[in-house]
Amino acid sequence: MQRIILHLDLDYFYAQIEESRKPDIKNKPVVVCQYSGRSEDSGAVATTNYIARKFNVKSGLPIKTAKKLLQNTDSVFIAANHELYESVSEAIMNIIRRYSDKFEQLSIDEACIDISNKTNNDYQSASTYGNELKKEIKTLENLTCSIGIGPNKLISKMAADSNKPNGTTVILPDKVKDFLFPQKVNKLYGIGPKTNTKLAEFNITTIEDLANSERTVLIDEFGQKFGVYLHDSANGIDNEEVKDKPADQIGRIVTLKEDTRDFDLISQSIDNLSKDISNQTIDKKITFKTVSITAIMEDLTIYQRSKSFEIFQNSNDIIVATSKELLRNFLSQESRKLRRIGVRVSNFSQTKGQTNLFDFNS
Ligand code: DGT
Ligand code: CA
Ligand code: CA
Known about the structure:
Elements: E1 5-10, H1 13-21, E2 30-35, E3 43-48, H2 50-53, H3 63-69, E4 76-79, H4 82-98, E5 102-107, E6 110-114, H5 123-141, E7 145-150, H6 153-162, E8 168-170, H7 176-180, H8 193-201, H9 207-211, H10 215-222, H11 224-234, E9 249-260, H12 263-283, E10 288-297, E11 302-313, H13 316-332, E12 338-348
Parallel strand pairs: 2-4, 7-8
Antiparallel strand pairs: 1-6, 1-7, 2-3, 5-6, 9-12, 10-11, 10-12
Helix pairs in contact: 4-5, 10-11, 12-13
């Protein structure tokens, strides 16, 4: 069966989130840092915006080196705020999930979805569909991403990576080889420096070289599993399904119309979020024991409050009432305004007949 797979990767994810919240830094080199805390400036760069990348400042670089490379610029160094990035990631993954027949999250800023049915297996509508998804993420979360659309997971991922930032790249099934073959073999997903060196010894430098090499030779050299992988993927073959693992929690999060600590105003958002969540839990026949709220404050600090029940629950009324009770308690101990509010249910039951569908341990 022909499939259409869409791969999505957010552009300079942590740094773009920082930019979208502090627009005045947008035209400067932005460096998001993972400080180790051992001494001042010890630690590594988590990521940077594209302006900083022009100065060769990239993920993994020591912060000290990044500071040297950017010493004559008006650059901005920011400590990573993982709770914030997680909450934005969750909101975006919920959007992507809505666009999919099957959804698989691959990392904090990456997912692939099977859109074969949603697009009636038509690449023209797949491209339009992908751009609608990008537009929705831009409208709701003010972030850009790059997408790749192709006949399998491998091709759509490589397509997304080939044109960043804000790219849309469609590789039609009969153009897969045109896309792959001219590329250097180390661009193939799964080929690291070691394999690259080994392949060079066989005079294999492009993906075309690899595709045209003897399968048996590759198996002899790299073992059955990896040898087959190398030969298949160089030929654009990848039959791996999008693994549609249902989440072990269902949550929704929104930015409030204005920063506020008005209970009624925030409650309106809770009503909407809860309705969304309970529609999903009813749809998937999920019952839950825990309801939580996430409050992101005007200064972007993040708080979670939860309540758990002895027995499994399934009603929207419970989600709404519990969230509002948690919110009321929270506001009574807190003087700052809220910027975003999230609601989530977790601690699902594993009811009979669902064991294959729902992998709760993952
Ligand atoms: P891109 O996709 O090239 O536009 O840029 P990013 O920053 O989105 O890069 P990506 O997709 O590889 O990684 C997503 C996020 O993961 C990134 O924003 C920060 C985090 N991350 C990536 N590499 C590292 C690393 O080496 N160290 C740390 N602490 N975080 C990393
Ligand atoms: Ca990314
Ligand atoms: Ca990524």
